[in-house]
Automatic annotation (TrEMBL):
Domain (FAD-binding PCMH-type) ranges: 1-170
PANTHER family: XANTHINE DEHYDROGENASE SUBUNIT C-RELATED
Keyword Oxidoreductase belongs to the record: yes
This protein's UniProt keywords: FAD, Flavoprotein, Oxidoreductase
Superkingdom to which the source organism belongs: Bacteria
Classification via Gene3D superfamilies: 3.30.465.10, CO dehydrogenase flavoprotein, C-terminal domain (3.30.390.50), Uridine Diphospho-n-acetylenolpyruvylglucosamine Reductase, domain 2 (3.30.43.10)
Protein name (record): FAD binding domain-containing protein
SUPFAM superfamilies: CO dehydrogenase flavoprotein C-terminal domain-like (SSF55447), FAD-binding/transporter-associated domain-like (SSF56176)
Listed InterPro entries: CO_DH_flav_C, CO_DH_flav_C_dom_sf, Diverse_Substr_Oxidored, FAD-bd_PCMH, FAD-bd_PCMH-like_sf, FAD-bd_PCMH_sub1, FAD-bd_PCMH_sub2, Mopterin_DH_FAD-bd
Length: 287
């Protein structure tokens, strides 16, 4: 197995263009497990850990740009105010060791339906910044990034450079059901993002369909019927929102849970996160 070690982004893109079969390596918390368990034996690994710019994040024009190599630890410690949904999700990933190595870029690269970054990225309308030497930069909205179980819209010669997350315009929440509190892959998960100025509510469902996905009909229901001046959203509207979120899911029975349980849990998480976020929204308005 060849081990390619670029030190700049240009070198990384050149290496991927010359060897599209090379598997990118960021924190290695997915890749190394797969190699150790002989799930795959790639002809080459493309180690991105020496490309310093991938470990940086920045804010400009209301968008937080998070380099593909920024570990969850940094998301938790530094991005709680800018991207609260993503920071909450990052807090639930693995253990301190995994959060120290694992990255949002790697979560996107793996594109697992159970990845914890995906629901908050969907809810916040994040955009994946992909790049190749010959094709240049391609901006892929999160909603169009996930293409199947562990399949994404990335092309063989492309690498993820960063993910662009709009700075939170209102309260955001992430909720995850697992068999215990730490070191657990989601049975299912849900994220919500409120944008009071645009009167928009974004959603993201995890681990309850072949890909992470939004609950579009549920978002449209709130866009039509939610009274943004109300002290609390109408109880029957909250129920219908929960039901539409469950209807957007397409779960399976597997070792972590049954499809029926996942549908129920998505409905409950949708209702709860909406209620929590609304309470914050009202609190901020009163402050
Ligand atoms: C013990 C343990 C617990 C875990 N718990 C959780 C959990 O709770 N929630 C969760 O979501 N995940 C969990 N994971 C999975 C893993 O930690 C995450 O998916 C993490 O985000 C992967 O990031 P990484 O940087 O380690 O990726 P890597 O393993 O380096 O890469 C992952 C995938 O992304 C590709 N890739 C990496 N960087 C790029 C790039 N720049 N461009 C294109 N493709 C790229 C790789 O080729 C590979 O296919 C756990 C893993 C372990 C071992």
């Amino acid at each position: 197995m060849d081990f390619l070690r670029p030190t700049t982004w240009a070198e990384a893109l050149a290496a991927k263009a010359d060897r599209p079969e090379a598997v990118p390596l960021q924190g290695g918390t997915d890749v190394m497990v797969e190699i150790n368990f002989a799930v795959r034996r790639p002809p080459a690994l493309l180690d991105l850990t020496r490309v310093a710019e991938l470990r940086a994040w920045s804010v400009a024009d209301g968008v937080c740009r998070i380099g593909a190599g920024v570990p969850y630890r940094v998301v938790v410690e530094e991005l709680g105010a800018l991207a609260p949904g993503l920071a909450q999700a990052a807090r639930t990933v693995g253990s301190p060791q995994i959060r120290n190595r694992g990255t949002v870029g790697g979560n996107l690269g793996a594109a697992s339906p159970a990845g914890d970054s995906h629901p908050p990225l969907l809810a916040a309308e994040a955009v994946v910044e992909a790049e190749s030497r010959d094709g240049g930069v391609r901006l892929i909205p999160a909603a169009g990034f996930y293409r199947g179980v562990k399949r994404s819209a990335l092309r063989p010669d492309e690498l993820i450079r960063a993910v662009r997350v709009p700075v939170a315009a209102g309260p955001q929440y992430f909720s995850k059901v697992g068999t215990r509190n730490a070191m657990v892959i989601a049975v299912c998960s849900f994220a919500i993002a409120l944008d009071p100025a645009r009167q928009r509510i974004g959603t993201g469902i995890g681990s309850a369909a072949p890909t992470p996905r939004r609950a579009e009909a549920a978002e449209e229901l709130l866009a039509r019927e939610l009274d943004w001046d109300a002290a609390a959203p109408d109880a029957s509207l909250v129920k219908r929102f929960g039901r539409l979120c469950a209807e957007a899911a397409a779960p399976i029975d597997d070792v972590r849970g049954t499809a029926a349980y996942r549908l129920h849990a998505v409905e409950i998480m949708a209702r709860r996160t909406l209620t929590w976020a609304w309470s914050d929204h009202i609190g901020r308005r009163a402050a």
